[in-house]
Specification:
Structural class: alpha/beta
Number of strands: 13
Protein name: F-box domain-containing protein
Shape: globular
Largest sheet: 13 strands, mixed
Distance between the termini: 42 Å
Strand content: 15-25%
Helix content: 25-40%
Length: 456
Amino acid sequence: IMYSINDDVLRLILDFMSPEDIHGINSTNRVVYEKSMKSRYELLEITKRDKPTKVLLTHLCESDVGRYVKKVKIRPWLVHPHTNSPRSITEKAIVRFMEVAVDPHYTRKTAEARLQKRLRKDTTRITTAFKSMSMLQEFEIDWDDTREFHPEFFRAFLAPPLASWQSHLTSLTVKVPLSLVFTLASVRLPYLQSFTFHFTTAGQPEQEINHAHDGFLVFVNNLKDSLQSLTFTSTFTSQNLNLCYIFDHMGVFPSLRKISLSIPFEGGHLPEPMSFVQFVMKHSKTLNHMDLFTSRCVMRWTPSRHSCFNWIQNILGSIPERLPLLRGLGVALRPLRAPLTIVTQFLTMHPDIETLYLEDRALETTQISQLFPQFFAQPVVDILHFQAKVESLTPDLLAYFAFKFPNLQTLKIECSQILLRGTLVSDFRNYNPQTNVVVSAALLVFRYSAKYRSLD
C-alpha cells in the first residue's frame, strides 16, 4: 500500500505523524526515509562531551547523513583531564619514583598530555562531521563568557568550517572570545543573508577592543553583496565597548532590509547615537525592519553620560526623513519614565508599520492611546502584529485593539493584573455591528484565559 501512494500525498500524511513513528517505518519507502532523516538531523545542537554526542558525530561522518543537516548550533565545552589516582602500590611507587628521580612535575604534565589528547579527539570528531554537511544553511557558534574556554576549539570550529560552507551558508550567528574574532577576516561568505554577532569584550581597554575588531570589520564589509539582516548584541560583561567605532567603519549594504541593535540600557556602548543614525540613513531606501532593544546595564567605574540614557529616543528623534519601506519596528521604551512623544512622532512619520513590538515598560491604557491618537476615530493604523507590556489587561483595552487595529493578526500582551470589568465596551459595541462580533469573541477568549498572565 505504501508504494501505491503518490509521493506528494505521502508527504502530507507524514506531516501528521510523530518523528518516532516515522523513524519506526523509515525503511518502507524512500519518501519516509527522507522525512525520518530530516526530522532527526535537520536541526542539531552540540553542547557537551558525552557518549550520545560521540555516537551522533560518528553517524554524521557518513555523507548520506550529513547532507540532511540544515542548521547547527555548537557551544564548545570544557574538557577535564580526569587525573586518576594510582590504583595499586606498584603504580604509586612508579609515580613517586618519576616525581622524585625524573621530573617533579610528572603528574601535572601527564594530566596536560591527557587533556591535549582529548582535545584533539573532540576536534577531529567535530571537524570530520562538519565536512559531511554539504547542505548546511545556518550555523551558530556560542560561548558562555562567564566560563573558561579552550581556544583550540574556537580556532577549529569557526573559520575553517565557514570556508568549506561558503557556497551554501545563508545564516550565521557568532559569539566567540575577543582574542579569536580576528580569524573571521580571512572568511568569505558570498551567499550569507543573515548575520548576528554578540560582542564580548570583558574589561579590555577600548583601544585594544577596536584593534581586535579590525579583522571583524573586514569580514562584515565583505558581506555587502548579499547581507539582508544584521544584528548586533552586547551585554553588561563588555565594559569598555564603543560601537560607534564599528558603525563608523561599516560601508553600504545594498540589500540590507533589517537592522537590530541590543545594548545595555544605559547606552554607554553607543555614546554617539548619530553614528548609528548615519548607518541607518545609508540604507533608508531598503530598510524594512528596525529593532532597538536593551539589556542589563554595565557596572562602570566612570558612569555614562546622562545623554547616553536616552540613546533610543535620540536615534528615533534624529532620523531626518521617513524610511519609505519600513514595515516593522521593535523598541525598548527606555528610560522607563521618559515621555512617549518621540515614539509617537516616529510612528506618525511611518504610518505603514505593520509589526510593532514595545518592550521593557508596562504601559497604561491611556499611554497606549497616546501612541496612536484619535481614540474614537475611524481606525487608521494598519498594524498586523503587536506586542507590548501593560499594567492591566481589561476588556476596554481589548476593545481598543479591535477597533484601532482592524487587520490585527497577532496580539501578545504581558500584564501584571487582569481586570474583567470595563466602562467603554458598550460604547464600542454600538460603533460597528461587524466589529461587535470581534470584540465579543475577544472578550469571550479573554474571560476563559483570565487565569494566565500573558495572552497570545
